[in-house]
Amino acid sequence: MAKSSRGSGRKVSIKRLALRWLIFLGGLGFFAGSVLLVFSYFTVQIPDPNSYVTSQATILTYDDGSEFARIGAQNRTSVPLGKIPLDLRHAVLAAENRNFYSEHAISPTGIIRALFNMARGGGVQGGSTITQQYAKTAFLTPDQTIKRKIKELIIAIKLENTMTKDEILENYLNTIYFGRGAYGVETASQMYFGKSVRDLTLRQSAVLASVLRSPGYYDPGLRDGNAERLAARYRYTLRGMVSAGWADKEILKNLEMPVVQPRSSTGILAGPKGYLVAAVQKELNKLGFSDEKLMVGGLRVRTTLNRKAQQAAVLAVAKEAPKKAPDDLHIGLAAVRPGTGAILAMYGGPDYVERQLNNATQGIAQAGSSFKPFALAAALEAGISIDTVWSGKSPQTFDDKGKPYVVSNYGKKSFNNLTLLEATEKSVNTVYVPLGIAVGPEKVIDVARRAGIPDQVEMVPTPSVVLGVASPHVLDVANAYATFAAQGVYAKPFLVVEVGNRNGGVLYKANPQGQEVFSKEVMADLTYTLQNVVKFGSGFAALKLGRPAAGKTGTSQENSSAWWNGYTPQIAASVAFYRDDATKSLRGIGGMTTLTGGSFPARIWTEFMKGALKGEPVLDFPDPVFIGEDALADGSIYNIIPRPPGFEDTAQPAPVTPTPSQSPPSASPSPTPSASPSSSNKSGN
């Protein structure tokens, strides 16, 4: 028994000793923490909120590092507290800090919750008072660190000792971010309800108060699921107002939320530059940078956009586009650096605020004869020489899976025998359709995909595919021609080169990868042929560039779209004209009988390239190798594609005078057909 008593006594002594040590260490920790808190209080200064606001905008730069826009530069109008409706003030308190006027600047329970969250591996967040939120929003960074949290607490305490509660609330309501590029209640009221804050109803006030906790999570116009989450928080806010005596309980009988207006673009730069900002922001989102991070994160984003090229794009459209045109005429331009995929310039439209659809990256237009080079590349890969001889008679009938497919040349122009080189210069449909049949429509599509036409662009393996019945984006075609300019090296187009934080750290860096998808020999002959389009064919307007250039026009059936796609060794660019309704023609626009790719589009391209290449060395293309030349040098091959059994040649050589809108050195080329196999298909220019 004695031994048992002694053992029990030792255990009690050990427990007491451990408890004393815990008390001692706890007291020591509390003392050290208190000393640190006091030290921090006297050393941490309240910075100027205006300098914070300026430094936290995300800066977008050209490839040379010069700034062209900011995302999140504060869109804010300050309003005195007395002019902010009492209902809105109460709604914010109900949603964010119901005891704001009675409690101190910091919330001990909130701090414990934040520390517990950190201990579990989460960020330092949650439980902040309005004073803390104001300290964080106006004076600190959004980083989730212990150091930042301590600064937040110290600044909050200092603010409470130097400002009244009303002053803190007024500053908070004028600086807090509500999403949609809106800082403060006045701008937020305009963005969400299209009215001044002074005109908000109680229910509208409750909506704004409910959004501000996390706009990306609650803004109903941002993504699916947000409306339901906002409705739940809206009900929470209303119940809080009733509970605090700030609203009559009758309001809870109808919890239907007022209608929020759609997200608008007025927070993004107006004019052509707005399309650049939106496109860069979209790519940043795909890279994992949220809108909220871009708005307040103070990032620095270096893009591929070239200042000289971008300015040249805007000026070229302003100078060469038709002065009088219908409102639904759209012009898109995209330029790419061959072999890298870097987007150098983009013209998405005259004003992003008026129309948010980017003509270069989002609008689509039937490509027309822009697709003929894909058939040419496929033929060269198959060993078919550009010196092979074909019949250019028009119309001609071909077999399309047992159905007659009648093809005519642009302007019903009929030709005698001519080489593939000459047929490309003149954009002869009745040569290119049988060429596509010879190599196989599937092969033509394969070449287009390898060059850069994405899978999202539908292409059907029928004889008409060579005539460009598909409808790609302008950027798609520009990048495909960039593959030609890079001697067969494809690279995915991109806008963002590097993302850094305000301290100089690199958060993201692009690593473009080029892939050889065509042989240099095939590309040499293709480029030589497309150079002849400029020298002797439908692209003669590009001769004014004064340096080696290659390219191809494209004009769709019924003249609903018109393209010029061209390149030098340094830049590939595409220009397209089209309308909202693909059934509407471009005829008559700019005083032209037919608006072809060799007219306004080629002129805009030429003017753009002059500016973009100013000061750049004049480079030559590689010499042609003349694939298959020896085997076909005698020129004895005529119409190497025989007519389908049962179909007669229906050529009617009745030449038509070329349209006065373009007077090329050689005969007018051929716009793009519909895919109907029984129709008389005319693809052109």
UniProtKB/TrEMBL annotation:
GO terms for biological process: cell wall organization; peptidoglycan biosynthetic process; proteolysis; regulation of cell shape. The keyword Ribosomal protein does not apply. Pathway: Cell wall biogenesis; peptidoglycan biosynthesis. Residues 675-685 have a biased composition (Low complexity). Residues 335-578 form the Penicillin-binding protein transpeptidase domain. Residues 655-674 have a biased composition (Pro residues). Pfam families: Transgly, Transpeptidase. GO terms for molecular function: penicillin binding; peptidoglycan glycosyltransferase activity; serine-type D-Ala-D-Ala carboxypeptidase activity. Keywords: Carboxypeptidase, Cell shape, Cell wall biogenesis/degradation, Glycosyltransferase, Hydrolase, Membrane, Multifunctional enzyme, Peptidoglycan synthesis, Protease, Transferase, Transmembrane, Transmembrane helix. InterPro entries: Beta-lactam/transpept-like (IPR012338), Glyco_trans_51 (IPR001264), Glycosyltr_51/Transpeptidase (IPR050396), Lysozyme-like_dom_sf (IPR023346), PBP_transglycosylase (IPR036950), PCN-bd_Tpept (IPR001460). GO terms for cellular component: outer membrane-bounded periplasmic space. Residues 65-241 form the Glycosyl transferase family domain. In the C-terminal section; belongs to the transpeptidase family. In the N-terminal section; belongs to the glycosyltransferase 51 family. This is Penicillin-binding protein.
